[in-house]
Amino acid sequence: MRYSDFTQLVDEVFGRALGRTLVSEQVLPRLGGRTPAEALDAGAEPRDVWHALCDALDVPEGRRWGTDRNRQAPPPR
């Protein structure tokens, strides 16, 4: 997953305003107590950050991939 895919999914799944707030303010223990933005800035894989955010917010599997039903992402490592 590329960073641009991550950003697109954040906007699709959470809405642009809420999604951007979550990325900059939601502290996730799975990311070492960092926000998604901090984890990405530190070099974390966007895929891993996406899964951590979705898991923390209990996003159902069927909603995790936005509007593109053909979009696939490998499971977290």
UniProtKB/TrEMBL annotation:
InterPro entries per UniProt: DUF3046
Top-level lineage group: Bacteria
Pfam annotation, one family: DUF3046
Protein known as: DUF3046 domain-containing protein
